[in-house]
Write a structure and sequence with these properties.
With 316 residues, this protein is an alpha+beta fold. The protein has helices spanning 25-28, 33-38, 51-62, 67-98, 129-152, 208-220, 234-244, 285-313; strands spanning 4-10, 17-21, 41-43, 48-50, 158-164, 173-174, 177-178, 182-187, 193-199, 228-230.
Length: 316
Amino acid sequence: MTIRYKCNNFSPSTHTKETFQGTEEKVIRQLYPNAQRLFPAVLSHRSGFSKRLLESIRRDIQFSNGPDRILKKLAEKHHKRFSELQLTYLINVTEHRNRRTLFEPVITVFEEFSTFNDPMKYAGKMPSAPYITFMYTQYMKNLTPLMDQQITRLSGTILKGDHSHKFNKKMYKINGVPSFTGLYTVTNEYDEIRMMILTPTKALDFLKGPFKSMLTSLRANNYDEPVVYYTDNVDADRNFLESVFPSLANDVARLELTPDQTVAPSLPMLSSVPSSVTVHCCHDAQAISGVCYDIMKDIDRRHKRKFASVLMLNGV
């Protein structure tokens, strides 16, 4: 794809004439944006992947396919292409022999088709799973600024935030101890991810900077500031969220409960149970499951009875 160039000027740092490849990243970055976009591959030190292959890998990883499974998929496609080329070669050899006439007394000896691993012919070398991970990471680094810009353009009038503790289990541990305890994700009213941060603890104090940056981006894009924030621990998170999003406290009357109150006094209370309702107390999981089964069975029976009455009304 290129050759090695030698600069005629001496480098001010090394006082030598430097050499470089035309495909080096520092050279490609000097091209026009459209020329950079049309460059067909992402290169490493001695190899690389085509952008078409990296797009396929990105889709596979998006649907929870890891590097090992992707490697098996690539090996299957690679061997399939090899088999198709070998079959085409053998068919052409057979057709040539069948078309031989009397004027061709000498039988042509054809060379045997290459093996899959022959480095001088087909050279069917496969990348390793760590190399696939490395190339995917390098490719996504180039897309990270674009993804960050897209996230900052999303609205955030209604936000929902929660910790997830599954992602950190997949990360590398130092002396058996994970570096992060959770992944805090914030989504907006359209269930679009507005923020995603790895946190060392469940405390929200570490998220003050990202929350401030989110508020700045909302104001820069002329979006309404958050008015509702859903969380699973309102009492513990309320003061922090109102400090980073002052709009959450606008026109809000706090309801303070006394120590002897367990529910808000404004909520309706069930004064008495109607005489037509029978109360059953379940003390274990088996009893609760049995009651739930009876309820679902009764609902299914009523649904079938209603469906049968509709059929009778229609004259079926």
